[in-house]
Amino acid sequence: MRKLAFLFVLFLTAGMMAQAADVTFKAVAPNAVVMGQQFRLAYTVNAEAKASDLRIPELADFDVLMGPSTSSSMSTQIINGSVSSETAFTFTYILMPKKEGTFNIGAASIKVKGANYTSNAVSVKVLPPDKASEASGGDNSGQSASIGKDDYFVRMEISNRNVYEQEGFLVTFKLYAARMCGLENAKFPEFEGFLAQEIEQPNPQWTQDHYNGRNYFTVVLKQTVLYPQRSGKLTIESGKFDAIIRIPTERKIRSIFDEFEDAYTNVRKVLVSSPATIDVKSLPSGKPASFTGAVGNFTMTSDINSNNVKTNDAVTIKLKISGNGNIKLIKSPEVVFPNDFDTFEPKIETDLKTTTAGVSGSKTIEYMAIPRYAGDFEIPAISFSYFDPKSATYKTLKSEPYKLHVEQGEGGSSNSPVVSNFSNKESVKYLGKDIRFLKVKDFNFVANNDIFFGSFMYYMCYLVPAILFIVFFFIYRKQVKENSNIALVRTKKANKIAVKRLKNAGKLMKENKKEEFYDEVLRALWGYLSDKLNISQASLTKDNVETELTRYGVDETLINEFMDILNTCEFARYAPAQASDAMDKLYELTVDAIGKMENTIKKQ
């Protein structure tokens, strides 16, 4: 009996909790109203039992004309033969604003079956009266057949027109309409010179707003966060939009059926947003050595997988950079591992979110290295610098240095002999044997007249291999000499590797994979310059590339052509979709520039 009573109480409690979890209490009010206009504030609760003890916040900024009036509704659903019903109670107040401005109405509370529930808060913007409506004697029906010059337009609203290079700002395209209308063939500008991060608009909603003395229905068409990629005055071009406006038509009724016909017609009006100029300031001097172009506000954390490892075990350092700014363009900070460690390309993961406040999130960089010798090592502190546009200063973040103890792993000792083909750092094997036994076969006897010794072919068999040996010996010596010069090998192979990457870029271009195409072109250019100038890619910058090319005697025009291609690729990687002819043109320019560079450097 005790067990049965316990189970009964348990099921009863679970049922009550399930019912309580299904109860929702929601407040609804319009986003914007006009001064002198009444509006409804409604509180809805879904519950099987009637709700009671409704308590609303103080409405000091509004006059309560009526309420609360109570109504109820019931809905029934049948899903897979299962019938469910829901009852909702609505409490409605009729309010009128006392003054203009934006006012917050706090949360209300209600009681259902002895449990208290809290609603959401709402915000109501009270707009001033429409001056155009007042001038026409208060007629705001909006049924005039004529379309005024200021009845419909698109504004490009910019949050900040004076920014630093790589500092983000918000661009909003908003449609203002005397009456709600449709929109077709929206053509937004290309944002040339900016990195664009678009904010998703899953379900745009009409609302009311006040502008230049008039009240309009407005809807946000597009919001984009832009990051200028160079300093100077950059222009955002105009956008072009086709508005479909429904206006009433005047015609005489010829039969009793005419009154049921549609008495409206659609008018197309072309709307053009005004261009805007952004003043982009250069980043100030005094950049720290660890600054690689990050602009915004960031934090950094780091950790290591272990401070005690064995030889040939992986050491992993995980670096996480979080904040708001041009986080997508942040280059990986340099981690200096000891010379005896084999290092690998870092693994990068990004978690980004674009809002009206900018691009925020994190970039996680995982560095991996493998120690080959036992001992005690130290990995220096990792530095990351960024420019904070709010304080107009550079800031540097540093991790702690890591002390690493490496013990000798299994499979070898410090004095064990090894062999390697030097083509792969991992292809190292210990010799198990150094002697192989010879296999002996039976002798074969031949007749005297078949003896090959002393014949013409006998001497030719000695002479031809000797000549070939001498020829191949000199060729081999030449190749060994050239291969020992790593810089010469890299220089010779630079063009072949670049051509291979450009062929791959051409395939991506045909498949219309824009971002992968520009990434492959960038890799081809930087790889070519790294091999040709014998400088590691980690040390390559636009400044030292210009210096080295000048030292090689490359013409300034060709240098500028290379820099323009690099800049165009970097800008276009995250810009809005480019036309295919733009990628074709860039591809041809890249192939032509590498060909000119190859011919120029060969002559030196």
TrEMBL record:
Keyword match Transmembrane: yes
InterPro entries for the chain: BatD
Signal peptide residue numbers: 1-20
Highest rank taxon of the organism: Bacteria
Keyword annotations of the record: Membrane, Signal, Transmembrane, Transmembrane helix
Name this protein carries in UniProt: Protein BatD
Keyword Transmembrane helix: yes
Coiled-coil boundaries: none
Transmembrane segments: 456-476
